[in-house]
Amino acid sequence: MFQDLREFMKKVEERGEVKVVEGANSEEEIGLLTEVAAITPGAPMLVFDSIKGYPNGYRVATNVFTSRSRCALSMGAEPGLDARGLVEYWCRRLDEPSRPLPPVNVEHAPVKENVLLGDKVDLLKFPTPQWHSHDGGRYIGTGCTVIMRDPDDGWVNLGTYRVQVHDKAVATIYIAPGKHGDIIRRKYWSRGQSCPVVVTCGQDPTLTLVASSSEAPWGSSEYDEAGRLLGQPVQVTPGPVTGLPVPATAEIALEGEIVPPEVDSRSEGPFGEWTGYYASGSRPEAVFRVKAVMHRRNPIILGMPPTMNFEATSPGLSYRRSAQRWAGLNRKLPGVKGVWEVPEAMGCPMVVISLEQLYGGHAKRAALTCLAEEGLMARWVIVVDEDIDPFNITEVLWALGTRCDPDSAVDIVRGWWGNHLDASLEPMRRKQQDLTHSVGIILACKPYHWKGEFPPSIKLSAEQVARTKAKWSWVFSNPAPSLKK
User: Fold this and answer.
1) Number of other residues whose CB lies within 10 A of the CB of residue 481
2) Cα(205)–Cα(94) distance, rounded to whole angstroms?
3) What is the pTM of this model?
4) H/E element holding 286?
5) H-type alpha helices, 47-149
6) Domains and CATH numbers, the chain
7) What is the pLDDT of residue 47?
8) How far apart are the first and last CA of the chain?
9) In 144-231, where do the E strands start and end?
10) How far apart are CA 274 and CA 142, in angstroms?
11) Which of 141, 358, 414, 419 has the fewest CB neighbours in a 10 Å radius?
12) Which residues fall within 8 angstroms of residue 162, CB to CB, at 6 or more apart?
């Protein structure tokens, strides 16, 4: 694991997976290059420097986690693992007997190499990109960490929410309804108070990991979970305005308050979102008044804008959330052989569970239990038999096509948790702030009560495949031997 973003970038560079791009503009070219690279297999991490109109050394790093090898590296795993290997690795990490470690304050904090207060605050000094052609502005917060303290119990929450720059000292933070950060800020607003907040725009991979998808229970801090994963406490320093704990090695930290929406709001969005659409449009969002800016020398914005490569938005998101779901199911049910959030369907909207059915209703119970674990924006939960590899979309589709009678194997759950990013939400319901939607549960598995009579499959066993490839390895070599004349 890595202590800061720079240490991780150096390791990736040693592996030959970094390209430095000089002379690009932040209005269009950084976003375009980032997206094209994200959807190109084998493309490297990009580091933009000498950005037009900004000092040399003010950098933007993108596509940091878009390859499986870089995802694995950020998680402390072997870079050569396949999808199942990474999910199983993360399952083991979740089950480690280590305890959460609270953060510790340190005197030396690189993030405080430059501290700008009051009239010296200037968000426009950073080369914040417009990531997509139809975005409503520039977003400094995509690969960011938003830090808040619960006003009742005092615990500190870390989340990843998008942050749009409006002018020198004004930004907005979009937080989906029901997220911990939204609940916390509403507590302050209900008392007529502004919500203290810090946004870091570049931090070590572990903090990025836990902030974006740790799914930590309400009341427990992601700082403590990051310490557990690192094996040592996260080093923090108090913000000069709010006193909130700021990661000592963060690249950039914006500190201030989110005022109640009736006090001051700005139009936020549209923004090209992880669902692949500009679905949430533009709407009023409460203003984030920035009162202090801290940054390291030669600061780096960590850019993780959504692209058509789902893994662009967070380090190993599918692997980690699949492991969390798998671990959650294992705590409650026997027979679970694998869980996979399908990245081709943008992750959480489609989850596949491989299950050895042990009793009637087992498959449906697994689907509903998985849905209840963390179901924001869930659309499909598919249960397949234990002989189906959930990480192989071809096998999943085979099961859907041959083991599923829609009349008896499909159920609809209505009124499920959604948000503004749902592209299929009807315009009238969106206006009424009814963001709920339905979820389809598909039991693409052999009917339990007569599964023993189901026709046998021609599919080879894993042992047969391995034995054949071992004996006849020359047939599968690349390049294969040429034909003899």
Assistant:
1) 8
2) 17
3) 0.86
4) strand 283-295
5) 68-74, 83-94
6) 5-311 (2.30.110.10), 332-460 (3.40.1670.10)
7) 97
8) 54
9) 145-149, 156-159, 162-167, 170-174, 195-200
10) 11
11) 414
12) 139, 141, 142, 144, 173, 174, 271
